[in-house]
What does this fold into?
Amino acid sequence: MTKKGYELNLLLSPHFSEKELGDYIDQICLFIGEKAAIETKKEPKKIKLAYPVKKEKEAFLFEVFFKTEPEKLKEIEKKIKEEENVLRFIIISKSEFEFKPKIPVIQKEKILTKRREKISPPKKEKVELKEIDKKIEEILQE
It folds into this structure.
């Protein structure tokens, strides 16, 4: 089968020291490396969580990009689920991130001006007071 690209995002326990965190990440990457070809990995960074996850308010965020066959992905997922120090994880197919080409700036400006024309009310002509007086006199005489 053909290999597909994936992105693995992990929230790791905040109770690691720097050395322990490095060793733990190396252990995870070693396992992934047995099943897949690791393209890149980002340095872990400590973040505050929007809400508690497994009673933790902070976590280390770690990202790994790799290519593997879909059958081997299940083995990787199973291994990560078993890990106690992983608070939460997600594996995303990289093909999901292929974006459509952006709209060129010139075309975007044309779209915006068309929208403004639709939204803006039609411009009214200014009427002089003499004309208004004439109309009022005509209405009153009737």
In short: Residues 4-97 form a domain with the Alpha-Beta Plaits fold (CATH 3.30.70.60). The CA atoms of residues 72 and 90 lie 16 Å apart.
